[in-house]
Amino acid sequence: MPQYDFDLITLGAGSGGVRASRLAGGYGARVAVVEESRLGGTCVMRGCVPKKLLVYGAHFAEDFEDARGFGWDVGEPTFDWPTLIANKNKELDRLEGIYGRILRDSGVNIIEGRGKLADAHTVEVAGKHYTAERILVACGGWPSMPDVPGIEHVITSNEALDLPSLPESIVIVGGGYIAVEFAGIFNALGVDVTVIIRAGNILRGFDDDIRNTLAAEMEKKGITICRETIVRSIEKNETGYSVRLAGSEVLETDLVMYATGRAPNTKGIGLEEAGVKLEKNGSVCVNDWNQSSVESVYALGDCTDRVQLTPVAIAEGRAFSETNYNDNPIKVDYADIPSAVFSTPPIGTVGLTEEQAREKGPIDVYISRFKPMKHTLSGRDETTLMKLIVDQKTDKVIGCHLLGPDCPEIAQILGVALKCGATKAQFDATIGIHPTAAEELVTMREKRPDHGSKT
Ligand code: NDP
User: Fold this and answer.
1) DSSP at 98
2) Whole-model pTM above 0.90?
3) Structural domain of residue 239, as residue ranges?
4) Any atom of ligand 1 within 6 Å of the Cβ of 311
5) How many A from CA of 44 to the centre of ligand 1?
6) Are residues 288 and 256 in the same domain?
7) Please, where are the H alpha helices in 301-432?
8) How far is CA 349 from CA 117, 182, 200, 368, 373, in A?
9) 17-44 confidence digits (pLDDT tens)
């Protein structure tokens, strides 16, 4: 008679929780996953997937315009937001079905409801208690917003993905991934977009050349960016909302969206009561093996304070299950994680920014700005930027920063090159594919003159 009901209970069926659970199930562990909302979690239901479908949908606006230069007469295109949302939702239903099937095929029990730790080996769901040798907390995160008067009137990315109709105007507060991605979507669909950032620039943490160029491209497309601006209050009025800024300016808008970061979903699920140590921001403190301060309780993904990206949560889920259920100890390597921002145009990046690289030692910078070939005929005024950062001592490429169509796809493969420790000489020895934008990465020969700091 086993000591526990299950070998593993996972709280949360998002990307990380599902990967860990189904691998553990596949290795013969008795697994249950507890989910209070939909299978798939943030990425599939409220994040990456629906957002990217909207990015595709919105980009047709530019595609129809660009087609004219190639001889197409597409008439006056019309767009129906409810159709896009309905089709997107159909796809999410399909994906949820696949997630359920994958879990069941791996022998994983799905328990619907909100799970809460009753002790280090027990989870309570709707008054029922289930015991397990290990508990994996994979509860993800949720939009977090500052305490501003009128904050109850605003939407987050959760609601933005399901608006019943498009507003004529929107104010988006924040300048991170979500803010710039949604600014691009709404702007392309004809909404008047204002982005409010408290800092001097969007996308803190990204390479400055990318930040500056994307901000300029967004502004060229008609997005207003209010820099070093603080929102004092939001008031509802008869037609929409008044956003009162520090100083005396007031912006009138149809809708206000906040994209000011995400907080871990760790409140009220019995973690601290069970002795699990949390960081100040509420994330679960874990060691390299995803283990919390309580031996039987593990955590991964967005509810820990590491890298908030789906593929990272998936890698952590795999590492957890390989280590604990397949006798194959694996730690996640957090170096050189490629990432993308699906802004318009999009960003692809891997490795160190110029600023980070300079702190480590002398570097060479190669940078190329050009108009993509497609836009010679489309006439679109959009810059593509490619930047390589090379360690002077080792000749290794230690940072790649790209802005332009297809750059997320290119960055994925640059991630492989950086993992292999590729040198600039090896980039140069690689024959380009002509005509592509990516060939620029293997043909950049001129170092940017070094003034000791970024230009
Ligand atoms: P980010 O952390 O990327 O950005 C938050 C933004 O909000 C920053 O511009 C920040 O400004 C601003 N901000 C924070 N607090 C306040 C405040 N009190 N008042 C005004 N502005 C504030 O968060 P997001 O919500 O955009 O995204 C959350 C996470 O989700 C990301 O970090 C990312 O890891 C993940 N994600 C990844 C995507 C992808 O891979 N493509 C897409 C979407 C999300 P400041 O710079 O001054 O701190």
Assistant:
1) H
2) yes
3) 151-260
4) no
5) 19
6) no
7) 310-325, 354-360, 374-378, 407-419, 424-429
8) 39, 19, 21, 15, 22
9) 999 999 999 999 999 999 999 999 999 9
